[in-house]
Amino acid sequence: MILVIGATGMLGSEICRQLSAKKQSIRAMIRNTSDPAKRKNLEDLGVQITQGDLRDKSTFKNALKGISTVITTISSMPFSYVPGKNDIENVDLHGMINLIDHAKETGIKRFIYTSFSGQIDLNFPLRNAKRTIEEYLKKSGMVYTILRPSFFIEVWLTAATGFDTEHGKVQICGDGTMPVSYISYKDVAEFAVESLDNMAARSITLELGGPEKISQLNVVKIFEKVTGKKYELQHLSQEILKSQIDTATDPMQKSFSGLMLCLANGDPIDMKKMCGKFPIKLTSVWDFAKNLKLSTETYA
Questions:
Q1: DSSP state at residue 152
Q2: Which of 35, 52, 136, 148 could form a disulfide with 59, with the two C-beta atoms 3.0–4.6 Å apart?
């Protein structure tokens, strides 16, 4: 049986959907405060639900019982973040360390961990926690796969991060000219599922990007062509982003500014060799823009 932690999130729920389609036995560890609708969606997929919390290691025993593989996508950022309670220190760092320890003690054979691109390498809390956990997992003795996806299309090309297609306004990080390998969370989920049986995923770190290396400015051009709109651009300079990192007092604010600065610096990932080992058809920005326009027109 496979345990998915973070199953009510965007990536975790997609992993559960893909595992269910492959008739895998799945258990999800979710908090008692989780959205009932999301819980029902998992149950409808045939997922076994157990209550647990990364901040409470006493809940791990039941969650890990009978499990062969753990897949974790969980993070306190951005939607469940509560300073001093459900935050980077308690969830992304200490919670993950405790989970890895208990998984090893329980005899778990495989552990698949979702981090982010290795080129995201500035000094900010979320990055530091992710890199610490990567190294801790490598030393655990378990067979591991570390997934390092670039910027999610469905997050960074939406209004939540300043890419407002509805109103034709886009916030550009830096000058917008550096190439980025935007990737769909659905493709990342497929890599996670494929990693279960693919020998190329055993005890390795996988750098994951989309099918193209494309700048923020060229992304805007694609959306303008697809939607027929002219977009208004606002640039956040690297100097402003660096200042935000330096002056922010909250770890989440500091981390989000850090990610934006990494986006400004670019994140190109060559996927040719990776796609030779993993038979996954990657989603392009063009595909995403066309599907977004189609769904918008359908529900207008």
A1: B
A2: 52
Secondary structure (3-state) at 17: helix
Q: Which 3 state secondary structure label does DSSP give 60? A: helix
Q: In what order do the strands lie in the sheet with 204-208?
A: 48-51, 26-30, 2-5, 69-72, 110-114, 143-149, 204-208
What is the C-alpha to C-alpha distance for residues 31 and 265, in angstroms, rounded to an integer? 36
Q: Which amino acid is at 17?
A: R
- Number of other CB atoms surrounding residue 61 within 10 Å: 12
The one-letter amino acid at 108: I
Span 177-208, pLDDT tens digits = 999 999 999 999 999 999 999 999 999 999 99
The angle at the Cα of 267, spanning 262 to 270, to the nearest 5 degrees, equals 165
Residues 6+ positions from 134 with CB-CB distance below 8 Å = 113, 115, 146, 205
Look up residue 211 and give its DSSP letter: S
Closest CA to 188 of 134, 144, 152, 138: 152
Q: What is the rounded (10 degree) CA torsion for 228, 230, 232, 233?
A: 90
pLDDT tens-digit map of 265-286: 999 999 999 999 999 999 999 9
SS3 call for 284: coil
Residue with tokens 């025993």: 61
Compute how many other C-beta atoms are within 10 angstroms of the C-beta atom of residue 223.
Answer: 23
Q: Rg of the Cα trace of the chain?
A: 19
Side chain identity, residue 276:
G
